[in-house]
Write a structure and sequence with these properties.
Number of domains: 2
Structural class: alpha+beta
Radius of gyration: 17 Å
Distance between the termini: 36 Å
Number of helices: 6
CATH topology of the largest domain: Muramoyl-pentapeptide Carboxypeptidase, domain 2
Number of strands: 9
């Protein structure tokens, strides 16, 4: 599998240099989601006693396999329902349990859009990302130096491929971006310049 990923990264780089990378990446990326089968994932949701709704992902530009909507997790309050791939929703639940979060405020999950200033679809568009602005009432924007938030960000690296914090760039001054993407840094992207 690692060789396949390296090969795909190489192909994407080559295609990028010929201005074809974004459409190719956007087409191939949903198939590289490394997710559980729908049956296995639904069984896991039921095992965790998570109430969910299967959601149709009919957006041809941002298809998500096993898209679910969850209003709250057992013993964890969500500011708004989340909409994510089933595997990502389970991962989020396991992470929040690990950090012993009782509530989170988030800015969004599934959203078919590109990464700012690019034509590459964001991990939000693949249902693998969440932007968290508060954990147990602590604001990322106003309380970023709080040890609890710093530990939550550090621990996120055990659950997520990409963890972007206010320490990483100005675009994330008020939230943690967590995603289960491929861990690829796209070429020529300078997130520090993005507002």
């Amino acid at each position: 599998m690692k060789k396949l990923i390296i090969f795909l990264v190489f192909i994407i780089f080559i295609l990028y240099t010929t201005k074809v990378a974004a459409p190719t990446y956007n087409t191939v990326r949903p198939y590289l989601a490394f997710s559980m089968s729908q049956e296995s994932c639904i069984n896991k949701l039921q095992e965790y006693n998570i109430k969910y709704t299967l959601v149709d992902s009919s957006n041809k530009n941002c298809p998500v396999f096993n898209l679910v909507s969850i209003k709250n997790y057992p013993n964890i309050f969500l500011s708004d329902p989340i909409k994510m791939s089933c595997t990502s929703a389970i991962n989020l639940y396991e992470y929040l349990n690990y950090i012993k979060a009782k509530s989170i405020t988030h800015l969004g999950t599934y959203n078919c859009r590109t990464i700012k200033n690019t034509k590459f679809i964001s991990e939000h568009g693949f249902g693998t990302a969440i932007d968290i602005s508060r954990i147990d009432g602590l604001s990322i924007k106003n309380n970023w130096e709080n040890k609890r938030l710093k530990l939550a960000a550090r621990d996120a690296k055990n659950f997520y491929v990409n963890v972007i914090t206010p320490d990483d760039n100005a675009a994330h001054y008020d939230h943690l971006h967590l995603d289960s993407g491929l861990g690829i840094t796209l070429p020529n992207l300078n997130f520090a310049k993005m507002n």
